Amino acid sequence: MGRSAQVSALEAERLSIAFGGVRAIDEVSLAIEPGVVFSIIGPNGAGKTTLFNLFSGLYVPLAGRVLFAGKDVTGLSPDRLARRGLSRTFQNLQIFFRMTVLENVMVGRHRHETTGVLADLLHLPSVRRQNRRTREAARAALSRVGLEAEAERRADALPYGALKRLELARALASEPKVLLLDEPAAGCNPVETKELDAVIRSIAKEGITVVLVEHDMRLVMNISDRVHVLANGRTLAEGSAAEVRSHPAVVEAYLGVHGAQEAANAFG
Amino acid sequence: MSVRDLSRHPLAALAWIVPIITVLPLFFPSAYYYRIGALVFIFALAALGLNLLMGFAGQVSLGHAGFLGIGGYAVAIGPAYLGVPAWLAIIGGAVLSGLIAYAVGRPILRLKGHYLAVATLGFGLLIAIVLTNESAWTGGPDGISVPRPALFGLNMRRSEPWYWLAAASFLLSAVIATNLIDSPTGRALRAIHDSELAARVLGIDVGQAKLAVFAISAAYASVAGSYLALFNGHITPDIAGFLNSIELAAMVVLGGMGSVVGSLVGAAVLVVLPQVLTILHEYEHIMLGLILMGCMIFLRRGIVPSLQAAWAGARR
Amino acid sequence: MLAESLQFFFSGLTVGAVYALVALGFTLIYNACDVINFAQGEFVMLGGMTTVFLALAGLPLPIAALLAVAVTVLMGLALHRLAIEPARGASPVVLIIITIGASIFLRGVAQVAFDKNFHSLPPVFGTNPIQLGGATILPHSLLVLAGAGAIVLLLWLFIDRTLIGKALIATATNRLAARLVGIDTRRMVGLSFAVAAGIGAIAGILITPITLTSYDVGTLLALKGFAAVMLGGIGSALGAVIGGLALGMVEAFSAGYLSSKYKDAAAFLVILLVLFAMPQGLLGRGKVERV
Questions:
Q1: CB burial class (10 A; 0-12, 13-18, 19+) of residue A71?
Q2: Which residues contact A123 (CB under 8 A, 6 or more apart)?
Q3: d(CA A100, CA A104)
Q4: A-chain residues within 8 Å CB-CB of C291?
């Protein structure tokens, strides 16, 4: 079957970070295998987005390491991580509102564009050819999320749900090895969430490692290969979706001690 | 390609400038109008460079006239003290401006918003102060004269050849700027304007991109400054002063941030209007102040974007 | 050597007090409506010049000064009502250009209404300098310092102890919330302009006997006041005062020990250096961008 010890796609090794004396992430370790759908869940304020920010180079950890494809990338800037194949979406959208939908996704192709400033200024044939290729790849990404009809519209004309899909298409266009999705289902209705489920599955089938921060438990339980639970900046539990769901500490973290007792009483 | 496809090409927006440039002089009653026209295109060139920085990349510079000064004094000092021909001095000034922009830009462009504004302001003022004080090189507050260049045997004392030269230079620069829009560099700059964060995580080296556009915009301004100095035959440190910096920024905002044609429109308004009101010389500042305030209050998106919006609305 | 330093210290303190007042005016308006008011320097100019010309016209000095402050306050209100309010919601660059346009406009008005010469006012306590530790200081300088200190104190009392002052702070902190509790935020912003204009005018009247005044002193003052605000950290009133005093010191000492030709440059150089090292200024709050 192959070696039992595979190089992890993304790994945190005893990561810690503090803001103003409070440890937002405290000695968190996790290892994500390539090609899986890995979810990070936890109550509000658990540090999930902080962890994402550590992974994507927006924060530098106080202690610990981040490993990407087995190599130490701790402290690398976001753009250098992107060039290694890491991509992410944001909880509060970071769309380029003044650009069209298509142009937004074209920016996602940036790391595959090779022409220099001089060639760009002179609009050499190489730039024109590259523009054509970039446009095609962008359109392909748009059709994966069902937005190809909106390609020429300005991004600020789109509704919230469409913007979430746009950000996903943009991240996909960069052909990442690891894709971090920060609450992709937030604000989505059940129909949109089902579509999202399908898109994420198709992404994972291509071999891209998908890491999810999510509150929508149904989506998480349906789609995840592994789930990691954070609470108060620390690891609470990790395992398959089923294991985590019935873990007493997890239930307690979400519902509180009293709530957990109530739940236990209710379900016998 | 059909005509419709051609008309959607970004350069099509510039195409109508060509007939205007060539036809307009037929209406000039006197050589004075060539002078105004030349000044418009010279300032439009500087405004275009600033537009790349402000309109596209979303930065702000309230000290850009400093680069006008560097270019202007380059063509004054080069031929007079260093025996360098004018055309080489123009290029030298542009390169020097680009290098200074690169060096100063590293720390300055890490700032944002008001801090960036005041840092660029301070930088522009520093250049003006240095130009005023180093009188051995620059002739001090009264400035120095600039030897007129020889260009294909044309008499460069007259305004007419400058009109054509400035117009052609602006057109060329506009083509280059338009090329930038539909290119990876251009998209990266526009992305930085809307969300630096997202630009970063998509692999864009934001710091490098800002530096590049800062250097390019400095070079544009420098060439414009060189033209200005050669055209006037004289240069004083005022060229790098605060008033010029503000007028450049106002030209960009007034014409429409991010609009290449807007740079020309903004320059035209802010060069022609004061000339028209020159009879009220005493009231020049009052008029200028009212124009600036009025334009910003009533046309805050800029002339060209407002017109485009009105056009789009009318077509529906 | 010590006497020399002391001399620079005194002159730095005096001019620094004026920068501090200009910076304070900037901060008031910025806190109330996020606008950097470049016309702040013109308020200083108007205070001094109007007093001079009213006095020349025959009015007794105290009346002239009072009227000058009143006129300047009216200018501040007009600026708010006619130029800033109509442009509410415009981008920061547009607003900056509007206030710069206003400053150019006011300068043009002063040029026409007054003249282009330098003018002075008689110093209040006579021209005999006081000897202090080997250095000399004009009695009027002490008045400038005392006046500036009094203004800062009165402003603090106004904001901290009166209801209107609290309403102003509420507007500055969260405009929507202020409106929800019934505060007329437009009036509050207008008030901030009026107070800033008044402070500027008084500063102008105080400093004229020492540094003279003319129709175009406003620009450089505004730039330096702006720089002082950045130095202290935008939004902090204490920072504005400290920044202004620090700027005055830097100027005086560099003029004394380095070169007086470059004294203006020294101020801006220092600003640039501080901004590079501490982008949020000495006392500013660094913004943490939440994603």
A1: exposed
A2: B179, B182, B183
A3: 6
A4: 49, 53, 58, 90-92, 94
The structural domain count of chain C equals 2
> Of C215, C244, C261, which marks where a domain is finished?
C215
Q: Which of B202, B208, B217, B308 to mutate to test the interface with A (most CBs of A within 10 A)?
A: B202
> Are C179 and C237 in the same domain?
no
Q: CA separation (Å) from B307 to B265, B300, B312, B316, C80? A: 12, 12, 9, 15, 28
Minimum distance, in Å, between the CA of residue A242 and any CA atom of chain B: 33
Q: Residue B284: its chain C contacts at CB < 8 A? A: 108
Select from C97, C107, C227 the Cβ nearest to the Cβ of B285.
C107
What one-character-per-residue DSSP string does chain B give?
--HHHHHHSTTHHHHTHHHHHHHGGGG-SSHHHHHHHHHHHHHHHHHHHHHIIIIIS----S-THHHHHHHHHHHHHHHHHH---HHHHHHHHHHHHHHHHHHHHHHHTT--HHHHHHHHHHHHHHHHHHHHH-HHHH-GGG-EE-PPPPBTTB-TTSHHHHHHHHHHHHHHHHHHHHHHHTSHHHHHHHHHHH-HHHHHHTT--HHHHHHHHHHHHHHHHHHHHHHHHHHHTEE-GGGGSHHHHHHHHHHHHHH-TT-HHHHHHHHHHHHHHHHHGGGGGGGHHHHHHHHHHHHHHHSTT-HHHHHHHHHHHHH-
| Topology of the domain comprising A10-85+176-267 | Rossmann fold (3.40.50)
Chain C positions touching A58 (Cβ under 8 A) are 291
Say if A82 is an interface residue toward chain B (CB within 8 Å). yes
Window 34-73 of A, Cβ < 8 Å to B: 56, 58
Structural domain boundaries, residue C154: 24-215
User: Considering the domain boundaries, does residue C113 fall inside one?
Assistant: yes
Domain limit, last residue, from C196, C215, C234: C215
CATH code of the domain covering residue B120: 1.10.3470
Choose among C97, C112, C281: nearest Cβ to B283.
C112
Q: Tell me, yes or no, whether C242 and C210 share the same domain.
A: no
Q: Name the closest residue on chain C to residue A183, using Cα atoms.
A: C291
Which of A58, A82, A120 is the closest to B183 by Cβ? Answer: A120
Q: Which residue of B111, B282, B292 is in closest CB contact with C104?
A: B292
pLDDT tens digits, one per residue of C17-29: 999 999 999 988 9
C41 and C183 fall within a common domain: yes
Please write the tens of the pLDDT for every residue from A226-242.
Answer: 999 998 889 988 998 88
Q: Tell me whether residues C92 and B114 touch, CB distance under 8 A.
A: yes
Q: Which amino acid is at B122?
A: G
Residues of A in contact with B216 (CB under 8 A): 117, 121
Q: How many CA atoms lie within 13 A of A257 on its CB side?
A: 0
Q: Clarify whether residues C99 and C195 are in a common domain.
A: yes
The reply to whether C201 and C236 lie within a common domain is no
Burial C160-181 (b: 16+ CB within 10 A, else e): eeeeebebbebbbeebeebeee
Q: In total, how many domains does chain B have?
A: 1
Mean pLDDT calculated for residue range C223-227: 85
Say whether pLDDT at A3 is over 50. Answer: no
**pLDDT over threshold 90, residue B29:** no
Question: Which residues of chain C have a CB within 8 Å of the CB of A92?
Answer: 290-291
Q: Per-residue pLDDT tens for C60-112?
A: 888 999 999 999 999 999 999 999 988 887 888 888 889 989 999 999 999 88
Whole domain around residue B187: which residue ranges? 3-315
| C70/C159 same-domain check | yes
What's the pLDDT score for residue C8? 86
Which C residues, 230 through 259, put their C-beta within 8 Å of a C-beta on chain B?
Answer: 230, 234
